[in-house]
Amino acid sequence: xxxxxxxxxxxxxxxxxxxxxxxxxxxxxxxxxxxxxxxxxxxxxxxxxxxxxxxxxxxxxxxxxxxxxxxxxxxxxxxxxxxxxxxxxxxxxxxxxxxxxxxxxxxxxxxxxxxxxxxxxxxxxxxxxxxxxxxxxxxxxxxxxxxxxxxxxxxxxxxxxxxxxxxxxxxxxxxxxxxxxxxxxxxxxxxxxxxxxxxxxxxxxxxxxxxxxxxxxxxxxxxxxxxxxxxxxxxxxxxxxxxxxxxxxxxxxxxxxxxxxxxxxxxxxxxxxxxxxxxxxxxxxxxxxxxxxxxxxxxxxxxxxxxxxxxxxxxxxxxxxxxxxxx
Amino acid sequence: xxxxxxxxxxxxxxxxxxxxxxxxxxxxxxxxxxxxxxxxxxxxxxxxxxxxxxxxxxxxxxxxxxxxxxxxxxxxxxxxxxxxxxxxxxxxxxxxxxxxxxxxxxxxxxxxxxxxxxxxxxxxxxxxxxxxxxxxxxxxxxxxxxxxxxxxxxxxxxxxxxxxxxxxxxxxxxxxxxxxxxxxxxxxxxx
Lengths: 327, 191
Description:
The structure holds two protein chains of two kinds.
Chain A: H1 7-18, H2 22-25, H3 33-46, E1 48-57, E2 60-71, E3 74-81, E4 88-92, E5 95-100, E6 105-110, H4 121-131, E7 132-142, E8 145-154, E9 161-167, E10 173-179, E11 185-197, E12 215-218, E13 232-234, E14 242-250, E15 257-264, E16 269-276, E17 286-290, E18 293-300, E19 303-309, H5 313-322, E20 323-325
Parallel strand pairs in A: 6-12
Antiparallel strand pairs in A: 1-2, 1-11, 2-3, 3-4, 4-5, 5-6, 7-8, 8-9, 9-10, 10-11, 13-20, 14-15, 15-16, 16-19, 17-18, 18-19
Chain B: H1 2-13, H2 21-31, H3 33-50, H4 55-70, H5 85-106, E1 135-138, E2 146-149, H6 153-170, H7 179-186
Antiparallel strand pairs in B: 1-2
Helix pairs in contact in B: 1-2, 2-3, 5-6, 6-7
């Protein structure tokens, strides 16, 4: 339903690529940074764990708890805010329930594409090495667990740098830092307590935020549509960025149909939103910094094109300029 | 209805509304030109009352303001029809999520206004001289500061909705794991 028109085609290509077993690509000696990342991706989806972490951005700090289980191909996950307003996101494979009692509402819907292990992980990681350098940062300790630090430095000015701390044996991400173009940390996450389970008790995955005033509301399937002709052409993108997803949907508060294109270089994701300009509404044009996120909006032939992602301003701008009306 | 709207706008000016009343009031304000006029008048009133006037004069001003308000024409803005249920449903998820994310834009750091600037100075909503809704400074990636006023609520709303969608969909890249959801849950209310 959510799949873009490109997905089947893309899927086919990726399937062909992933038929090459990862083992063939692996080095026999110590794990390379790439293999560490591969383990990290798998660990996040396949392990059962229950942990508390601190998330900080823009001078704010929050504590959250995450509970994750994976059984017979079914991933279940519960994310709960422990500081600030109580909020919960519960994910059952593709079905996501957001419980936001400060709004007295609960939304339950299938949202976004499935968050599964990307089938094309080896290919992605190979591509990543063209745009980032990976370095072993040595052994450290996070939340009482032995961790390996991996430093990811961009090779050009189009992306941000990362530092990742991965569980020494299991590969799970224990701590991460995102650095902007000035080398400042703009977002970080760190576990303060973490427990692994053989099989997580299902009761831990039940929501606890359900309040008296909460209204349960089931969001309908989001019907997405495609126009017959593709209106938009993507010109020259910053190196390494590729179209991952393309969909149309309705935005809240307006009847406008918004086109959403998602680009990624394998690590950083950038969204492009295109909607018809409305003279009665204010169309802000230019660049904005929203914490770790940069956005750039431009007006083009009666449309507003807005690019947004955890990338430097120059990337947002260049992507905005590369998307144009066909002809 | 009329009194209710006045109260709502007044509360909005005083920064006393919470979601979902806040959302409703902002939406009303966005659609209604008359109401926007009243919004600015209330602000003028609020600013004037908070200024350190001589108490007697302030009191008489308060009275005059009160009279003026009494005589304000009744607002007969037609209630906008409910959107088609199907569309409302589609929008619901994003709308709610957007309200969570609203603060993402309200809490931009001011230091970004000057590239290479010194210390980060987060905007303190509580201490800001004006209600947060009226004047929110957004950091510009260039040298110019972009100031979105109440008139730009549209732009803010649009960027918020985008931000939520971006976070929801960048989940698919898988590499980042749970981080996009963390970003959604972590957005705090202005209060």
